[in-house]
Amino acid sequence: MVNFNIGEISVTRVEDFIDQHVPPGFLLPDLREETLREHEHWLAPRFYDARANSFAIHIQSFLLRTRHHNILVDTCGGNCKPREHFPVFHMRNGPYLENLSAAGVAPEDIDFVFCTHLHIDHVGWNTRLEDGRWVPTFPNARYLFSKTDYEAFDPRGHDSDRHDEKDDIFVDSVLPVMEAGLAELVDGIFEVNEMMTIEPAPGHSPGHALLRVRDAGESALFTGDILHHPLQIACPELNSFACADPVLARATRRNTLERCACEGHLLVPGHFAAPHAGHVREAAGKFSFSPLNCAEVS
Known about the structure:
- The protein is α/β, with parallel strands linked by helices.
- The protein has helices at residues 24-27, 33-43, 96-102, 120-123, 147-153, 167-173, 175-179, 231-234, 246-263; strands at 3-6, 9-22, 55-65, 70-73, 112-114, 127-130, 133-136, 142-146, 183-186, 190-193, 196-200, 209-215, 218-224, 266-269, 278-283, 286-291.
- Strands 1-2-3-4-5-8-9 form a 7-stranded mixed sheet. A 5-stranded mixed sheet has the order 10-11-12-13-14, covered by helices on one side.
């Protein structure tokens, strides 16, 4: 289990599953072969399997523990969810809740759930199946959703009568939380507590947001899908296949990297392989990545 600290705030990675065989050209459609070869020397083997020509994408949450609160950032893919349009997520039966328990907390112990955005791999464990109904997994939590994303993905606001399979994500993983009265829609900058602030970071989705965390002179940005892979640090112009607004996604990515490099924030993206976080450096207009070392990660 991966643990690190931001000041006195402890951070624990909670795994849902790992997709080991993601083709680079699928994840990053504009990636050229020569670009991959140029960066292979630092990507492999940690972030790139050269023999299989594949990336590993980690579907994971981050559990933050302060003296007063337990905060869960993103909730992965979920179990028993019908996802025929994206088979790797379809009707899974994984040990996520067992992994959460191994981290030392039960679902009832979570005080806040923050979803950086409302895509399939960031909302799934918001709910679980109980007696044939989707119910909130974290019954005592205050769920924080982007108001912009909520309105963009709510199928009840669409004019079309055609059913989109992606609507099921909202219906089974977002709407039950709202109907239970546990959700708060966040717009703009939002103070979760004295150490944590939600900030807009749009582009990947219309209302994508990040979480800025600070304590005892240290700080981190939990950035969701602003970046999917470390190669996007060296090549911030590369968008993922799922970026809704390509121009805005690139601008947000570069701004986030500049903040990390200039202000010293630890970068904690949603899907990076171990050690899952690191520091960004900038020299001559180019960004580089320094993963957390073993002394920082336990």
